[in-house]
Design goal:
163 residues, alpha+beta, 3 helices, globular, seven-stranded mixed beta sheet, single chain
């Protein structure tokens, strides 16, 4: 008797769900809240490696992204970077290269200073830490399964002089 009742309930549930659009299949309408949530999460990851006091943003950045970043830290444009300081990107500055949200994916990328404006002692351009933080939408929740940090000082390839 219990088995028949369970099967009947299961069949009713399956029949009721037929033709429904599930939450993870619905189109997502990006709003300002998405930018606020992702900006906060991405900056927490970046700050594991060093504090961020200023975010440098490109002129064509989505206004929702700019507002979300302004809520987190001081925001300046690339044109307002300090000049004649001997550094291309001061310590504590984060140069945003991408902050985009599509229907089900988002990307937050940038470089954390300091980055000198000259060459290193061995004659190659200096660099900071470059972060690439992807996010994916599952239902109504953004998740971030992994991220990448590129430290070009550790990823340089050396070729022998005679090679």
């Amino acid at each position: 008797m219990k088995c028949r009742l369970s099967i009947a309930i299961l069949c009713a549930c399956v029949a009721a769900c037929d033709g429904k659009v599930y939450l993870h299949d619905r189109p997502h309408a990006t709003d300002a809240g998405d930018y606020y949530q992702l900006a906060e999460a991405a900056l927490k990851l970046v700050e594991r490696r060093g504090p961020v006091s200023v975010i440098v943003v490109p002129a064509d950045l989505d206004p929702r992204a700019r507002a979300a970043l302004k809520h987190q830290r001081k925001v300046i444009s690339v044109a307002d970077l300090p000049k004649n300081t001997g550094v291309a990107l001061p310590k504590g500055y984060f140069l945003l290269q991408a902050f985009t949200i599509t229907e089900r994916e988002a990307l937050f990328e940038g470089e954390l200073g300091p980055v000198s404006s000259g060459l290193t002692a061995i004659g190659i351009p200096d660099c900071g830490l470059t972060f690439s933080v992807p996010f994916y939408l599952d239902g109504a929740d953004w998740y971030q399964p992994s991220y990448k940090i590129l430290d070009c000082s550790q990823s340089r390839n050396w070729v022998p002089k005679d090679g």
